[in-house]
Every structure is written in structure tokens, then in C-alpha cells.
Design brief:
Keywords: FAD, Flavoprotein, NAD, Oxidation, Oxidoreductase, Redox-active center. GO terms for molecular function: oxidoreductase activity. Pfam families: Pyr_redox_2 (PF07992), Pyr_redox_dim (PF02852). InterPro entries: FAD-bd_OxRdtase, FAD/NAD-bd_sf, FAD/NAD-binding_dom, FAD/NAD-linked_Rdtase_dimer_sf, NOXase, Pyr_nucl-diS_OxRdtase_dimer. The mean pLDDT is 96. This protein has three domains: 169 residues, 3-Layer(bba) Sandwich (FAD/NAD(P)-binding domain); 128 residues, 3-Layer(bba) Sandwich (FAD/NAD(P)-binding domain); 106 residues, FAD/NAD-linked reductase, C-terminal dimerisation domain (Enolase-like, domain 1, 2-Layer Sandwich). It is built from eleven helices and 25 strands. A hairpin with a 5-residue loop joins β13 and β14. The longest helix is centred in the C-terminal third of the chain and has 16 residues. The chain is of the alpha/beta class and 445 residues long. It is globular and about 70 Å long. Helix content is 23%, strand content 28%.
Length: 445
């Protein structure tokens, strides 16, 4: 059985490892247009902000490891076309050599691509995007210039907020723009996003919400020096665009069924509308247990899981994905926020009628004076069924592991009432006897 995998980042790597480690009859061919694989892009801001020593640790495998397992791997190789009728991938190497690779099964792991706003000045020098390792290198190099004093970040989602923090840690003046009226609007409700907004402002980041960029202007040398919005014109020395990603699914768009954003529609085994073709990671749809429907959630954790599922199914073991909750988290200037499922705002967009309950308290009893921080929690549940559909937590204490429990609760369709008397241990070193999770659940209407 010959399986070709197009794309060798998280999803493609997970699929390849699953096949190579479990199915010795598999002949694996891996193709990627990049010169590197396995880059943890979520760590770019840590490197650029000098919170870690360098970028080397952001790669967790390499092509030699796959060759040692028996895979044939082609890096810096572009796939020009897929002939789905004849099951052939047409590729071109970096030297311009064109060649064909046939397959029995195909796994497309082509990932996502940045959304590029089509506004005047978008091609000026000094305007950056952040996804690939090389783009991280370009941002880091540009930020090291002595004449770069002010950095504009366009987009206040996770990547935008993280790179804004990184630029501030590098001593830059930072202007953060977004069309929404808060940061992190896709993940949290306003009571939580306002906490992050205050945190950003308290650390010297200038916030420009409800203010999307409408144009860029440049100097005589063609380098960006102004960001223009509907509210004003701002002098800048560098721009980082981080307004989001969309599926990189051009290869099969004319042959495979696609979602509203262009992503390949897949079933719970990651199979596309073609029985011999699977799609994994950011180029494919995913099933959300929160909204109980197919959707699009581009996360590295989802990519890995989808790659594992596809690998086993291609290898001959029937395996269905249990679905996802879109669990995520962020830590900015010491404020940690985590969420899973959907917020109240997102529920409204999906026409799901919900209620919510929330609570705020110290992590530990008040007699613990050192290292004892406030925790804010919100649990979102469906009004009629009372099943839990989302949770959000914020604290300067590390409360991140709590979100895994809520993720499982959503997957297993637990109700808010089942959470009320959950057996949660107590020890003053860790928590309170009236735990904020219990208290929030007990407050539910």
C-alpha cells in the first residue's frame, strides 16, 4: 500500500508517524514545499520576545528521522497538481525537476495560509505575516533594526496579542489594531477580554479597537511608515499582520467537496468526498462537540489528532474522531486565560440558546498569603438540555489544567447539574474547600 502525504507539519507528521510506527506494509512518500518541518509556530512570539534562548527547540523532528523509519521524503518540492482520476501527484523540485508520484491513498495536509487584507500599500517593505519559520526570522531581523521604534500589529487574536507582547518586551512602542471592540474576541466573552485589554494597556501597549487598517503608506524607499484607519493616521516603522488564517486547499478545490471557507469537508475518519483521499489539519473541517456540527478550527492540537485518525484509517484500522472542543489558552505578561467550547457570544452566532454561570474567588484559602491569586470562571450551558457547551477561566495563577476537564465534559455531553456535586479534592496548598468550579456550578439557574 503506497500512501502519499502532502504537507509535513503537525498533521502530516502525525499521519506519517502513525503509519510508519504501526503499519509495516505501508510505503510512505512525504512531500513539502518548505525547507523545514515540525516548526512550532505558537512559539515564535517567545523567541522574538527573547523569553526563550533561541528558535532551535521549536523544531521537534526532522526529515532524517523519517528517512530512518523508511519514508521517502521530498522537501522544497511544490505539488503543482493532483490527478485524482489516475491517482497521481505532479510535483516540481527546487531545481525545477518535474516528476509524478502515484498513490493508493492520499493524505492532504497542506495547512492554512494567512488572510491578506487587500488594501492600498499591502506590498510595502516592512509589512510582515507570521506563520512559517522564515516569516518569524524576518520579523525577528526587522525588529532588531535600530530605526524600528514603533511596531503596529494588525489583529488582536492569539497571534497578534502574543507578538504585540513580544515587541513590547523588545522595547518597542506597540500599536495594536483590530476590527472587533476587544482583544481575543473569537475565544472569550467581554468580561474576560476586558481583563486582557487592561493587562495589555497596563504593560504599555496602545490599543486601537473597532479600528481596522484601511491602508498603508510608505516612504521614498518603499518602506511602510504609516498605518491609516477610519479614525486616524499613525506613524510606524514596521507592521505585523495577524488577522487570521484560512484553509490552504487550492489543490483539490475543483475535485473535492469544500466548506464555506474552502476547507476540505471530511467525515469523522478524515476522509474527503473521494474515498482514496483524506485531509487533515488546517486544510480540513472538523466536528465540534459544542455546536454539534461540522466547522473549522485551526489549532495545532486538532491537527495532530486528525493526523492520527487519518493514519489509522489509511492503515486499515477503522477509527472515528470523537470530535473536538477547540480548547485553547494564552499567557500574556503573566495573565493566563484558557477556554474550551463556545462562548456566550459564539453561541448566539450559532443560534444556540444558552445560559451561563460564573464565579470569582482566590485559588487558595485566604490564610495562604503568598502566591494566591484570583480566579475568574464562566461556564456556558445550553438552556434546554443544560449540557455544558463552554468554559472560560482567567487568573495569574496557573489554572490551565482545569480546562481539560471541561473539554471532556463537553465531549461527553455532561450537564451543569452533574458538575454541581463533582468530587473535587481539597487541600489548602492547592485550592479551597468551596472550590470555584463547584460554586459556579451551584449558582447555575
Amino acid at each position: 500500500m503506497k500512501t502519499v502525504i502532502i504537507g509535513t507539519n503537525h498533521a502530516g507528521i502525525a499521519a506519517a508517524n502513525t503509519l510508519l510506527d504501526n503499519y509495516p506494509d505501508q510505503e510512505i512518500v512525504m512531500i513539502d514545499r518548505n525547507s523545514n518541518l515540525s516548526y512550532l509556530g505558537c512559539g515564535t512570539a517567545l523567541w522574538v520576545g527573547r523569553q526563550i534562548d533561541g528558535y532551535e527547540g521549536l523544531f521537534y523532528t526532522n526529515e532524517e528521522q523519517f528517512r530512518a523509519k523508511g519514508a521517502e521524503i521530498f522537501m522544497e518540492t511544490e505539488v503543482d497538481k493532483i490527478d485524482f482520476d489516475n491517482k497521481t501527484v505532479k510535483a516540481k523540485s527546487k531545481d525545477g525537476e518535474e516528476f509524478d508520484v502515484t498513490y493508493d491513498k492520499l493524505i492532504i495536509a497542506s495547512g492554512s495560509k494567512p488572510i491578506i487584507p487587500n488594501i492600498p500599500g499591502k506590498d510595502l517593505d516592512g509589512i510582515h505575516f507570521l506563520k512559517l519559520f522564515q516569516e518569524g526570522q524576518a520579523v525577528d531581523k526587522d525588529m532588531s533594526r535600530d530605526d524600528v521604534k514603533t511596531v503596529a500589529v494588525i489583529g488582536a487574536g492569539y497571534i497578534g496579542v502574543e507578538i504585540a507582547e513580544a515587541a513590547r518586551r523588545r522595547g518597542k512602542n506597540v500599536l495594536l489594531f483590530d476590527a472587533e471592540d476587544t482583544s481575543l474576541a473569537s475565544y472569550y466573552d467581554e468580561d474576560f477580554t476586558k481583563l486582557m485589554d487592561k493587562n495589555l494597556a497596563d504593560n504599555g501597549i496602545e490599543l486601537h479597537f473597532s479600528e481596522p487598517a484601511t491602508a498603508y503608506e510608505g516612504d521614498a524607499n518603499g518602506r511602510v511608515n504609516k498605518v491609516i484607519t477610519g479614525k486616524g493616521t499613525y506613524d510606524v516603522d514596521m507592521v505585523i499582520n495577524s488577522i487570521g488564517f484560512t484553509a490552504n486547499a487550492d489543490l483539490g478545490k475543483d475535485s473535492l467537496d469544500t466548506f464555506r471557507n474552502g476547507a476540505y469537508i471530511v467525515d469523522r475518519t478524515q476522509k474527503t468526498s473521494n474515498d482514496d483521499v483524506y485531509a487533515v489539519g488546517d486544510c480540513a473541517t472538523i466536528y465540534s462537540n459544542a455546536i454539534q456540527d461540522t466547522t473549522y478550527i485551526a489549532l495545532a492540537s486538532n491537527a495532530v489528532r486528525s493526523g492520527i485518525v487519518a493514519g489509522h484509517n489509511v492503515g486499515g484500522t477503522k477509527l472515528e474522531s470523537p470530535g473536538v472542543q477547540g480548547s485553547n489558552g494564552i499567557d500574556i505578561f503573566g495573565l493566563g486565560m484558557v477556554s474550551t467550547g463556545i462562548s456566550v457570544k459564539a453561541a448566539g452566532k450559532n443560534n444556540i440558546e444558552v445560559l451561563y454561570t460564573e464565579y470569582e474567588d482566590l485559588q487558595k484559602p485566604s490564610f495562604i498569603k503568598d502566591d494566591n491569586k484570583l480566579v475568574k470562571i464562566r461556564i456556558v450551558y445550553e438552556k434546554d438540555s443544560r449540557r455544558i457547551v463552554g468554559a472560560q477561566l482567567a487568573s495569574r495563577e496557573d489554572i490551565s489544567a482545569n480546562i481539560h476537564m471541561f473539554s471532556l465534559a463537553i465531549q461527553e455531553k455532561l450537564t451543569i447539574d452533574q458538575l454541581q456535586l463533582l468530587d473535587i479534592f481539597f487541600l489548602p496548598h492547592f485550592n479551597q474547600p468551596y472550590n470555584y468550579i463547584t460554586m459556579a456550578a451551584l449558582k447555575a439557574k
